[in-house]
Amino acid sequence: MNAGLVLDGLTTGGLFFIVTLGLLIVFGMMKLINFAHGAFLALGAYTCVLATSHGLPVWLPILLAPVVTGVVAAVVEPIVLRRLYGRPMDTLLATWGLNMIIIQLITLYFGRGTQPVKTVDLGAVDVFGTTYSLYRLLFIPVAVALGLSVALVLNKTRLGLVGRAVIMDENLAQISGINNTVVRFATFVFGSALAGLAGALLTPIASVDPNIGVPWLFAAFMISLLVGISPAALGVACVLLGMLQVLLASLWDPTIATLAVPVAVVLILRFFPQGFVKGARVS
Amino acid sequence: MSGRGRATTLVASAFAAVMACTVASCSSDAADDNSVLIAIPVGLTGANSVVAPGVVQASELAADQINADGGILGGRQVKLKIYDDQSGANGALKAFTAAVREDNVVGIVGMETTAARNAGQPIAAETNTPYVYTSGYEGKACAQNLFINGSTPEQSVNPLIAYIDENMGAKTWAIVASDYAYGRDTAAFFEQAVKDSGGEVVSTQFNPVDSGDWTSALQNIRSAEPDVVVSILAAGTPSVTLSKQWKQSGLAIPHVNLGMDEDTAKTIGADAAGVLYPSMYFTGNDSPENKEFMQALQDKFGDDAHIPNQMTVPQYVGVHLLAEAIDAAGSTDPAAVLAELPNVAFEGPSGPVQINKQHHAELNYYLGEVKQDGTTEVVADFGLVDPGEQCPELQSAP
User: Fold this and answer.
1) What's the rounded mean pLDDT across residues A177-197?
2) pLDDT value at residue B4
3) Quick check: B248 contacting A, CB < 8 Å?
4) What is the CATH number of domain A2-271?
5) What's this model's pTM, rounded to 2 decimal places?
6) I need a surface site. Which of A11, B113, B218, B397 has the fewest CB within 10 A?
7) What residue ranges define each of the domains in chain B, with the CATH number in brackets?
8) Per the CB < 8 Å rule, is A131 touching B222?
9) Which of A111, A209, A255 lies closest to B208 in CB terms?
10) Which CDD domains match (chain A) (predicted)?
11) Tell me, what's the pLDDT at A95?
């Protein structure tokens, strides 16, 4: 049972990570909390619905979802966000409006009910003395892979160098010849694509209805407050909060557990205003 | 007057006209065209959102049939207005306030969560507005204006436990329930009923109504190792998320889900295979009334028709019962309508229904099992079941 509890915590942390990474990248790069993140999660999930209802094999939509979401983001960024550059409050409102519009469009087309979607059926495996859902276990390697990829790109590639320059100081970056517009466009598309991927990964365990992204947007938002743009810091935060939520839910009460993330975030920020990041460096 | 001045005056008067129109309700929302307005509060958003579309369809079908048959009170049309109660107390307050205090509806027919009912009913009671509650619930809700054709635990739980004892020899039980009045009260009822039958409840857990995360609940069930698990959930989304996560977890324990319905089961599909659930209605019912009903649903909604279930059929029946009561009373006066409600009966897809047992109704109960393709097969017929002593102080003579 204890192994099961630990695995619950780790896999919950992995899922937090996958859902939050896209929001974090947009936050770090563009200093913008993208409230449309929940809608992009939903778009990813509904892409799976459409794809599997047309007979595509179940693993293909997982690759398709980030592409579709990325395309939507690519269309939306120049139309909605680019015009509001330099107006952070307005941009925030715009992403919130975008969230509402996308979700209402989904509701108009699909209805409010839950959508049937074919999902992978991996069953459970015996591991560490307990039987555990294989699908949930996969959240851990997927989260690690995503985190490593982002960290590698940020630290080891020219693209990442450009990104880190923009994060550190946009004006200096612009003066040294970096095209901020392109960087922000690419960031928004990439962050949204990650949201789409997360949405697709949620379909086997969540109800695919227009509100599928709502609880995750909330959790991702809270966790993002704690972390700069470091995937490593995000990883640590997600594992800790995942374990905390699971322990509270299993050993105390699930209703109390829903408070775990927000209360923990508030407490941590109270005593460590920088959150999990040492200084404001990208590490 | 200068050009600009005239334009301003025009705009101002147009604006004033629009404002006056809005205030005086120039829209056709109020029943100003001799129709009889009935409120349909339902969870368009929130936990019930998954089952709400079917509930609305069933209500509309009933109203259509009544109107096609010549309406009530000498040719007046029945008109429905749908209100979103957001599956909970806050939304119900808004919905009932609008329905009762602003729109002055003649009656209310609602498939709602207990939380919504508890919040809305006092508002309906203020004006003695007839409220027909159509959802299965935890029992013992009693009021002068409240009539219930939804099931009570005496009907859904007692025959079920007897069946499981007989056919599955279960000794230990685990309960997982939605954390609100219905979940808590029904879980308590269940625990007592299991104890009375000689079994033992080894684990009882509650999960927030709007929570889609059953990770810890499933972990605790796994360690409790019960012979059978009973879930007592709010209708709709909780069953979807629990079924999916149950499937992924690989648990192989028999699972009875009081919150499951035929429409949601079909949508979930294979992930719900093997789940058992009791219901007073299944689409396989062989009666002519049911066949007519299903055909009418198909004719009206075509491919968009939702599979009828124990949430939508009582709603359909409830609208018919209320309309008949208004007609029998000869007026929309609340006291007159309430006096007639115990007297009217309706022969519908779930059999004959009359709300004459202390404001509750006898219902025929069955047990269904979800198949691999999401359809439900009826595996047991419990016969006509009495709702039990719900409101002894509200004796309404049949």
Assistant:
1) 91
2) 56
3) yes
4) 1.10.3470
5) 0.84
6) B397
7) 36-152+284-364 (3.40.50.2300), 155-279 (3.40.50.2300)
8) yes
9) A255
10) TM_PBP1_LivH_like
11) 93
Contacts of A112 in chain B (CB under 8 A): 44-45, 49-50, 52-53
| Partner A contacted by B203 (CB < 8 A) | no
For residue B30, the model assigns a pLDDT of: 47
Contact across the interface for B216 and A250, Cβ inside 8 Å: yes
Contact B50 A207 (CB under 8 A): yes
Q: How far apart are alpha carbons A213 and A19 in whole angstroms?
A: 10
In chain A, where the domains are located? 2-271
- Summary mean pLDDT of chain A: 89
Given A4, A114, A254, which is nearest B267 (Cβ)?
Answer: A114
Looking at residue B63, its pLDDT comes to: 97
Question: Nearest by CB to B267, which of A11, A113, A122?
Answer: A113
Give the pLDDT band (50/70/90) at residue A93.
Answer: very high
The 3 state secondary structure assigned to chain A is: CHHHHHHHHHHHHHHHHHHHHHHHHHHHHHCCCCCCHHHHHHHHHHHHHHHHHCCCCCCHHHHHHHHHHHHHHHHHHHHHHHHHCCCHHHHHHHHHHHHHHHHHHHHHHHCCCCCCCCCCCCCEEEECCEEEEHHHHHHHHHHHHHHHHHHHHHHHCHHHHHHHHHHHCHHHHHHCCCCHHHHHHHHHHHHHHHHHHHHHHHCCCCCCCCCCCHHHHHHHHHHHCCCCCCHHHHHHHHHHHHHHHHHHHHHHCHHHHCCHHHHHHHHHHHHCCCCCCCCCCCC
Interface residues of A toward B, Cβ cutoff 8 Å, are 1, 4-5, 8, 11-12, 111-116, 118-119, 121-124, 130-133, 135-136, 204-207, 209, 211, 215, 246, 249-250, 253-255, 257-258
